[in-house]
Amino acid sequence: MNADGTALVNLTNHPAKDAFPAWSPNGSKIAFDSDRGGNFEVYVMNADGTALVNLTNHPAGDLLPARRP
Questions:
Q1: pTM of the shown model
Q2: C-alpha distances out from residue 64 to 12, 23, 34, 51, 57, Å
Q3: Strand-strand pairing, 18-23 and 41-46
Q4: What is the C-alpha to C-alpha distance for residues 67 and 69, in angstroms, rounded to an integer?
Q5: How far apart are CA 38 and CA 10, in angstroms?
Q6: DSSP assignments along 6-50, one per residue
Q7: From CA 37, how far away is CA 35, in angstroms rounded?
Q8: Is residue 32 packed enough to be buried (19+ CB in 10 Å), middle (13-18) or exposed (0-12)?
Q9: Closest CA to 29 of 42, 40, 13, 16
Q10: Is the model's pLDDT at 7 over the cut of 70?
Q11: Could you read off the pLDDT of 27-43 as tens digits, one per residue?
């Protein structure tokens, strides 16, 4: 996506609910919540949608990822 909001690209195609994206300070990664495993967990991926990693695995829902410089 361009800074002006043009050239939007869908980065996830999973039928789960993906929500609350948080960009890394340098713009290279995106953290987000997803219930793709049956429970809301925090995931991170490269800004181009590659290299998806599940960061949390807990029976309680993990919500609202935040990045700090």
A1: 0.79
A2: 18, 12, 10, 20, 15
A3: unpaired
A4: 7
A5: 22
A6: -S-------SS-EEEEEE-TTSSEEEEEE-TTSS-EEEEEETTS-
A7: 5
A8: buried
A9: 42
A10: yes
A11: 899 999 999 888 889 99
